[in-house]
Amino acid sequence: MYRTNTCGELRLSDVGRDVTLAGWVQRTRKMGGMTFVDVRDRYGITQVVFDQDAPELCDAANHLGREFVVQVKGRVAERASKNPKNPTGDIEIIAKELNVLNSSEVPPFTIEDKTDGGDDLRMKYRYLDLRRPAVRKNLELRHRMAFEIRRYLDSKGFLEVETPVLIKSTPEGARDFVVPSRMNPGQFYALPQSPQTFKQLLMVSGFDRYFQIVKCFRDEDLRADRQPEFTQIDCEMSFVTQEDVLQMFEGLVKHIFKYVKDIDFTEPFPRMTWADAMKYYGSDKPDTRFGMRFVELKDLTEGSGFSVMDEAPYVGAIVAPGCASYTRKDLDKLTDFVKRPQVGAKGMMWVKYEQDGSIKSSVGKFFSDDVLRTWLERGEAKPGDLMLILAGQTMKTRKQLNELRLEMGSRLGLRNPDEFSCLWVVDFPLFEWDEETQRYYAMHHPFTAPNPEDIDMLDTDTGNVRATAYDMVVNGNELGGGSIRIHDSKLQDKMFRLLGLSEEDAQYKFGFLMNAFKYGAPPHGGLAFGFDRFVSILAGLDSIRDTIAFPKNNSGRDMMIDAPSVIDDSQLEELQIKVDLKED
Length: 584
Known about the structure:
Layout: E1 18-31, E2 34-41, E3 44-50, H1 55-62, E4 69-78, E5 91-102, H2 119-124, H3 126-129, H4 133-155, E6 159-160, E7 178-180, E8 188-190, H5 196-204, E9 209-217, E10 229-238, H6 242-261, E11 271-273, H7 274-281, E12 295-296, H8 298-301, H9 307-310, E13 314-320, H10 328-339, E14 349-353, E15 359-361, H11 369-378, E16 386-392, H12 394-411, E17 422-426, E18 431-434, E19 439-442, E20 469-474, E21 477-484, H13 489-498, H14 503-517, E22 524-530, H15 531-539, H16 569-575
Parallel strand pairs: 3-5, 6-9, 11-17
Antiparallel strand pairs: 1-2, 1-4, 2-3, 4-5, 7-8, 9-10, 10-22, 12-13, 13-16, 14-15, 14-16, 17-20, 18-19, 20-21, 21-22
Helix pairs in contact: 4-6, 4-15, 7-12, 13-14
């Protein structure tokens, strides 16, 4: 037996016991004639003491390096100077025997919570990074959440069913990852962006309630909350309305918050239409932990002779509480922020509502104090507040104002990661128009059902048809979303036609689903939560990377195994594929 106990379980009640521990050397410290070695495993850290009374043993301890794998035998003793920050800090092991099970090279960074390794270095040596308690705790949380999600859904009658990973390419939305077929030369599988069509087929099959914690794949540009392969909590239900789905999965989210954070959400989650989310927050995933809702000022600015506002279709503002004390330098920095390429505004205007009731503004020469006061009144500003204003094209400017709002929320400490604000965003548009291709695309996916009230508008007012679709938003993050699906073959055919798919194209891409609908498809709907994102929100992380054991970097590379990589010519020949790299 390599160990009788782990490095995280011994307490004062174990004093006097002879034990054996095994783990990695966290650090060594020599003090006088004694050497202290912290031994670490997955469960914690225990201090081991090597006394000069056993010179050979003490000398061996002095030759230990960081990350050596060791086995230590000794007796549990009470520590003279206890460490209340460590669960095992009341005890130590008086060593009687030391066995080096494996030596280690000096690691490229310190295996501690506050490591000195940069992101790429940590990803290259991810197997070392995973030894750090901070990263390990994220994966432990992920494990606990997965088990509890399965337990909860099982209690609600859901069956977990695995769906294929090698499927047909149906390019809609993100690009597919494709896999060549050796047995079918010149033909390719695709990796699923989601199990969408298969979970609908399971509803046609009568399974009624399906779920799967499933890997999905999208070949798209990466950012903090994206990975080329990610995990969804994928769910579908039969004979349900939108209200049934919202109630079921709001219950799941509330249950997980209680299980992980001991937070009770006793009231129903608020609901906000997509139109209101865009009008008041400039985002379909608004962060509602704080206020600063948009204030529209266009009607109060017209006819001033100030072309920036007169010529803009939209003039909007936010009121930053208590920020009238901002200096000109502070305001210039905010202006530089909105001019960044990531935001894209041409400039910013402002109105200060001073504590004494006076008004100062960057556009004071175009507007009287009385007019500026009407702006402040509409924004319900109080003395000491600062109004920040942007003008331009409506949707573009709202998105810019959203970035400014989030920046001010961060500067004012209003985006507390330990505070959670959840809501449903509903009534999304069914279609979005693309100017470049001059056609409509499905905002969600082509199987999303239109709002029953809007079906008559499909041909006459296509752009204003609402979808029976919904997103769960937590702290400005889209936790997940879904829709009620089209289950009627004729309506599905019409949807394909509106999306510019010919009957032949639709049959080629989705014929298997359309044929299945001919055999009695029930009304059905569902949603998918981003599992990585759910873990990251509850762990208080900005990125989903540290919730994934072996993630890719922002270029889609696995730094540890150096993938993607070229493959042997013999493999290409077997697949009957020739690689022709075009020069830039």
